[in-house]
Specification:
Layout lengths: L1 E3 L2 E6 L2 E6 L13 E11 L5 E2 L5 E3 L7 E9 L4 E4 L2 E9 L2 E6 L5 E5 L5 E7 L6 E9 L6 H4 L1 E10 L4 E5 L4 E6 L5 E9 L4 E6 L1 E11 L2 E6 L3 E7 L5 E9 L4 E10 L6 H4 L1 E11 L3 E4 L5 E5 L5 E9 L4 E5 L3 E8 L4 E8 L5 E7 L5 E8 L2 E9 L12 E5 L2 E5 L7 E5 L6 E2 L8 E5 L7 E5 L5
Antiparallel strand pairs: 1-2, 2-3, 4-7, 4-13, 5-6, 7-8, 8-9, 9-10, 10-11, 11-12, 12-13, 14-17, 14-23, 15-16, 17-18, 18-19, 19-20, 20-21, 21-22, 22-23, 24-27, 24-33, 25-26, 27-28, 28-29, 29-30, 30-31, 31-32, 32-33, 34-35, 35-38, 36-37, 36-39
């Protein structure tokens, strides 16, 4: 792709779609400077059934690769960072993308929000570990007063087992039992924090408790007087995360809990922009199959672990486009209590309706969903603007002698055409719109460009 001034040309057979780039508020490394808390949540990337020469299952080597933890990072204005396990450097990879390169590990690609106080990475570790990991980083605030966090927060809870236990037995020491096969679940709810340090909420069941700020971005809660949970809050004080686990025969689970402070209202124009997607998927359950001797022979669902990083672009009219991973179009609309409803269409895929929960600053969203033997945790972050570029979400396709363009709408954004790349003409019907179709039958080679004459 070549860049010409404020525009970037994308060649597509007999037409040229022109994607516009304008200078907006910067995404910078100095904005990341400060103290960050990382809550990470890991699962196997798959479960392998190791077999002996007679094809008997003798081991599931990834059964202990479920893991949670937290760590503290200190980031300098040049992007260098230090933590208990070493040091490294952050760098800007693209709009809304921050690359972390630890001195003693593999690079991780994070997605950062507009406030640059939440960074998310869903990634797969290289062999031989082959784990999937969600890193949820929040930049610690300098101070927190009760009034800063008082209000109602949405709750999104995502659970897996903390480990999978196998029982060996018989004359050949083969796997006789696998447990748990359940324990994969997700729950949503709300929690209200009060200025007097009390709290109440609902997530499957009603609960009460207390909360206090401990400093360093740590919010301590005690639920129903017996369950202590420490959350990490961001600098904008509208996103919190907790990871916790129990690994006993009676309680075998690990979970990530995300709380987002509910906004009073949301408009389509406030959501307009480029959104980055992080996805973590697991089985919704496992199904163990045994032969007549009680030996494990199959484990359905063992390959339903997944991660992905994708993108969506929201227009100011409730229309969206994206790559998730195939080209997608759809709509979005705000509902009550910070709910954002997305309807997404991809070629060859069933229509998806997904309800997200958004934070007060309207730059971070989360959803949990289950379907066809899998469950997914989806986290969207609205990308800050990288100097010189903005993503219009332009898509095009040929069908029945016509080229159809779709993009994320914005005030003043308009499609133009030219036959010589010198004289350009407005397609006035596209001003503020999000699509246009042009016939390619019997037409001279035509070039198109999408422009936004006035930068916001």
């Amino acid at each position: 792709m070549k860049t010409f001034g404020r525009f970037a040309f994308l060649t597509c057979m007999s037409a040229v779609a022109l994607l516009n780039a304008v200078a907006l508020r910067a995404q910078t490394l100095p904005a990341l400077a400060g103290t960050w808390n990382n809550a990470y949540f890991a699962t196997p990337s798959q479960l392998t059934l190791e077999r002996d020469a007679q094809q008997r299952v003798v081991n599931i080597p990834e059964r202990n690769r479920f893991e949670i933890g937290t760590e503290l990072l200190t980031v300098q204005s040049d992007g260098s960072f230090s933590m208990s396990g070493g040091s490294g450097n952050f760098s800007i990879g693209a709009q809304g993308v921050v690359l972390a390169v630890p001195s003693n590990g593999d690079s991780i690609s994070f997605r950062v929000n507009v406030a640059q106080d939440v960074m998310i990475a869903a990634s797969k570790s290289p062999a031989p570990q082959t784990s999937h990991e969600l890193n949820f980083l929040v930049k610690a605030p300098t101070s927190v007063l009760p009034a800063d966090v008082a209000g109602t927060w949405s709750l999104s809870i995502f659970d897996t087992p903390a480990e999978i236990m196998q029982t060996l037995g018989g004359p050949f020491n083969v796997v006789k039992q696998v447990s748990p096969t359940g324990g994969y679940s997700s729950t949503t709810g709300t929690m209200t924090l009060n200025t007097d340090g009390s709290l109440s909420g609902l997530a499957d069941n009603a609960f009460t408790g207390t909360w206090s700020y401990e400093g360093g971005g740590r919010v301590a809660t005690v639920i129903d007087g017996v369950f202590p949970l420490t959350f990490y809050i961001n600098a904008s004080k509208d996103a919190m995360v907790n990871v916790n686990e129990q690994s006993t025969a009676q309680d075998n689970f690990q979970e990530v809990i995300v709380m987002l402070k509910i906004p009073t209202s949301v408009t389509a124009a406030e959501l307009a922009g480029s959104w980055k997607v992080n996805q973590l998927g697991t089985p919704s359950n496992l199904s163990a199959q045994y032969n007549l001797n009680g030996d494990l022979i199959a484990l359905d669902g063992k390959d339903n672990f997944d991660t992905a990083q994708e993108s969506l672009v929201f227009g100011n009219d409730g229309h969206l486009t994206g790559q998730i991973p195939n080209a997608a179009t759809g709509t979005f609309a705000s509902g009550a209590n910070g709910i954002i409803n997305l309807t997404i269409s991809q070629t060859g895929e069933p229509l998806q309706n997904i309800a997200f929960r958004i934070n007060a600053a309207k730059n971070t969203m989360i959803s949990t969903l289950s379907s066809a033997g899998t469950q997914e945790l989806l986290i969207l972050t609205k990308a800050p603007n990288l100097p010189g570029f903005v993503d219009f979400g332009m898509q095009y396709n040929f069908n029945a002698g016509a080229m159809t363009f779709q993009w994320a709408a914005s005030t003043g954004r308009i499609l133009q055409y030219s036959t010589n790349l010198i004289q350009w003409f407005d397609l006035t019907a596209t001003s503020g719109a999000h699509s246009y179709s042009a016939s390619t039958i019997g037409q001279p080679p035509t070039f198109f460009r999408l422009i936004e004459p006035t930068a916001p």
